[in-house]
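ok so I'm stuck.
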Amino acid sequence: MKALLLIDIQNGFCPGGNLPVPEGDQVVPVANALIDSGKYDLVLASQDWHPAAHGSFASAHPGKKPFEMGMLSGKPQMMWPDHCVQNTDDARLHPHLHADGIDFIQQKGQNPDVDSYSAFRDNDQAALTGLAAHLRAEGVTALDLCGLATDYCVKFSALDAVEMLPGVTVRFIEDASRGIDPAGVQAAIGEMRTRGVAIISSEEALA
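replied:
not stuck anymore, here's the structure
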């Protein structure tokens, strides 16, 4: 059972969104080719789904500006622009993404007191989203993942997949992903590789 997990391919992380990843929209046609390929038994997507005034937003901390470090629930936290607020256009999947080919959407980041980069659990690792249990119930044995952003939500999702889905082959599709910081992207790829995530291209995924 082979699954594809698309991470946060949402308006908010594409050009014109509130937290745009450079070239974020360029992952859409690659993701569509993967969705449409018939290579996957199951296609899933994660969706950042924050309540208004989420604690990771700089606007929730007087005097803080986006991309400064602050504190959230007693732990260091990057302060982000308001983004992917529930039921706003910013939170919707990119309009050109072939969403009709997605079998399951996992929303995340709904607890205002903790951020959630990974599609599998909150950053404090205390609360699970339920995605790992869903994949186990479906009998998934191989998981390819990609999306936005490589150095944050994609990386943490990949690392959690390796830890929480023992025995499942996990692969990161590099050209179907984009990151925020080039140095951070390279560090993330190195960390994923070290932890047992295979780094592949969409051409390899579709072969």
